[in-house]
């Protein structure tokens, strides 16, 4: 467990890329600052210079990411577990408990405990661990055994990112898997592209992992059966490519059963353009379900995502997703954590869509798969973003030949995605008070002060562009947080504030305790709390390392209100730990406020120093609100 926590500390520092105090790390990991210091020492002992230290705390060096992927092959519980699973999967005879314990230099009791952990991995895998005297063996189909290997490889991958070392730890140093990452992948992607497919890079890395597992199992004499194999033209063409490349690059011949199985996995992880003859026809039921669910999500969250091309792309993704669900071949997404913390509103729309897909099409969805839906949603919102999201600007440039025209052209070219120039003032003495745009880009000193005035050169320089972007970003953030402050002051109430609760009863107990304060005031009913717990099970609402925002799907509160709970010490929430829980209940009339409160509230709590200030000083409701407003106001 200590080694796991060391890796978690290392992972947090790699992700933050800035100084983090021992106390802040202790909050995230759930240990004392003293333990953090010992972890840092141990990390640097195994990877010299991985973690830098200073009076500001600790920071990951350039070597830290490599250290995170470089783990010893024996000695830790996870390494030992993988060794045992590989031994169990190597043949039908299984393992002898006492011989295996001796080989791993552990006691028989320790190995028995490890076998208990193996049983814990088998839930839902169609595998069983059987014991006969001192022998233990896995019973189940070859497909189920490969799924277990895939699951172990994914467990090795921090943040869902695929890497060669993780595969080698799962399959063993003697596997053929590593060779699939060079010429094989390049040739495979080129051949798929030649057939008219768009290759999802995240998905194809997962496919390569499955090909590596298949090659390893076939080399060990454990192929898939090919009885009754029937292929479609698309499966056949991809199977032929895999067969050719496996013989050329991996020096192994895969049977018909393996080739069709792998071709099916490929087809669930790549997307063919609409004009491609190789594209599988879109299931009308899937397309109708996606069209209706997208319309519901657009209405529920007031987002502009109803577009024919978007619906077709998402429907094709969902069709592939349904096939992956049938195969239990889930696809990992290395962007899941960052999408959830950086774009909580987009992720929430994706959770809503995933929930409705589960109801309509009975597709179970994991966080990584929800993140892929969020990527589709985010891409569409980026395409449909309206011009009124831009800041307006006036250029003040006293007329001298075409100088002002050249300057406007430069501004449009360099800053057109951030601001919209609506006026150009060429007078040397403009009426500064009459200029009402968000920004004023001026080549002369303004007669009145103000943050929105930005001094630039007549010939725009890179420094000018950077200065305008900084001011524009500051204005946007200030406006967002000003709206947030106004909304929060309406929705908070002293009677719905709890300081000092613990998480002993898990997320459900915390949700019910906080929700009870809103039930008593008639804001929500008990059914809302049941639905909030159901939403939490779909995907954790711990959007940052400090904040969880549990809520139900559907804005059914009699009025919008937020119950706040602060824990003195971090409590477990999903896969992370939090200190602030904000149970949000929104009413039908406050749909627009949902976006403001949800996204900007999470933004405030993504800043570690702000969180600690609020938690430390928010000893009662009045102090909490004062500190929150102070942080928002900067």
From TrEMBL:
Any single biological process term in GO: regulation of DNA-templated transcription
Pfam hit, one: PTS_EIIA_2
Quick check: keyword Thylakoid in the entry?
Answer: no
The entry's keywords = Repeat
The protein's matches in InterPro entries, at most eight in alphabetical order, are given as: BglG_antiterminators (IPR050661), PRD (IPR011608), PRD_sf (IPR036634), PTrfase/Anion_transptr (IPR016152), PTS_EIIA_type-2_dom (IPR002178), WH-like_DNA-bd_sf (IPR036388)
Question: Does the keyword field hold Repeat?
Answer: yes
Tell me the ranges covered by the PRD domain, including all copies. 281-387
Q: Which residues form the PTS EIIA type-2 domain?
A: 490-634
Q: What is this protein called?
A: PRD domain-containing protein
Q: Which organism is it from?
A: Microbacterium caowuchunii
């Amino acid at each position: 467990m200590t080694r796991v926590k060391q890796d978690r500390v290392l992972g947090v520092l790699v992700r933050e890329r800035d100084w983090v105090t021992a106390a802040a790390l202790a909050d995230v990991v759930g240990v004392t600052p003293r333990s953090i210091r010992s972890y840092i020492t141990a990390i640097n002992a195994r990877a010299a210079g991985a973690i830098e230290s200073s009076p500001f705390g600790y920071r990951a060096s350039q070597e830290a990411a490599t250290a995170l992927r470089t783990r010893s092959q024996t000695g830790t519980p996870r390494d030992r577990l993988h060794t045992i699973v590989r031994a169990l999967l190597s043949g039908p005879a299984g393992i002898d408990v006492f011989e295996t314990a001796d080989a791993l230099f552990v006691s028989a009791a320790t190995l028995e405990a490890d076998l208990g952990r193996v049983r814990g991995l088998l839930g839902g895998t169609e595998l069983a661990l059987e014991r006969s005297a001192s022998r233990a063996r896995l019973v189940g189909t070859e497909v189920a055994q490969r799924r277990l290997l895939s699951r172990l490889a994914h467990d090795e991958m921090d943040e869902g990112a695929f890497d060669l070392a993780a595969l080698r730890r799962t399959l063993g140093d003697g596997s053929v898997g590593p060779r699939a990452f060079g010429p094989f992948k390049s040739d495979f992607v080129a051949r798929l592209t030649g057939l008219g497919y768009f290759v999802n890079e995240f998905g194809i890395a997962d496919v390569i992992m499955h090909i590596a597992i298949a090659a390893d199992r076939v080399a060990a004499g454990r192929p898939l059966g090919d009885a009754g194999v029937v292929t479609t033209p698309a499966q056949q063409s991809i199977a032929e490519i895999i067969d050719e490349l496996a013989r050329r690059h991996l020096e192994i011949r895969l049977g018909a059963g393996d080739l069709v199985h792998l071709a099916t996995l490929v087809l669930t992880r790549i997307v063919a353009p609409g004009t491609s003859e190789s594209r599988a026809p879109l299931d009308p039921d899937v397309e109708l379900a996606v069209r209706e669910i997208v319309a519901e999500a657009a209405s529920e969250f007031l987002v502009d995502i109803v577009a024919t091309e978007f619906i077709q792309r998402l429907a094709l993704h969902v069709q592939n997703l349904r096939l992956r669900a049938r195969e239990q071949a889930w696809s990992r997404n290395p962007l899941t954590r960052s999408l959830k913390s950086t774009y909580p509103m987009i992720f929430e729309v994706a959770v809503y869509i995933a929930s409705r897909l589960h109801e309509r099409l009975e597709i179970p969805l994991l966080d990584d798969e929800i993140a892929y839906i969020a990527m589709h949603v985010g891409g569409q919102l980026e395409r449909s973003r309206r011009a009124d999201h831009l800041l307006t600007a006036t250029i003040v440039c006293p007329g001298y030949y075409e100088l002002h025209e050249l300057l406007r052209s430069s501004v449009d070219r360099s800053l057109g995605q951030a601001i919209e120039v609506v006026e150009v003032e060429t007078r040397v003495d403009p009426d500064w008070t009459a200029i009402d745009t968000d920004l004023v880009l001026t080549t002369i000193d303004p007669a009145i002060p103000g943050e929105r005035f930005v001094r630039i050169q007549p010939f725009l320089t890179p420094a000018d562009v950077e200065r305008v972007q900084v001011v524009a970003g500051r204005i946007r953030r200030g406006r967002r947080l000003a709206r947030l402050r106004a909304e929060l002051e309406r929705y908070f109430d002293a009677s719905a504030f709890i300081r000092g609760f613990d998480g002993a009863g898990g997320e459900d107990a915390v949700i019910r305790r906080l929700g009870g304060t809103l039930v008593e005031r008639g804001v929500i009913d008990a059914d809302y709390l049941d639905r909030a717990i159901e939403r939490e099970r779909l995907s954790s609402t711990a959007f940052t390392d400090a904040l969880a925002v549990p809520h139900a799907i559907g804005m059914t509160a009699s009025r919008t209100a937020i119950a706040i709970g602060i824990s003195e010490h971090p409590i477990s929430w999903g896969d992370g730990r939090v200190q602030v829980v904000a149970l949000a209940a929104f009413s039908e009339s406050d749909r627009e406020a949902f976006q403001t409160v949800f996204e900007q509230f999470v933004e405030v709590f993504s800043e570690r120093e702000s969180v600690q200030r609020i938690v430390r000083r928010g000893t009662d409701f009045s102090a909490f609100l004062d500190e929150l407003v102070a942080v928002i106001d900067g």
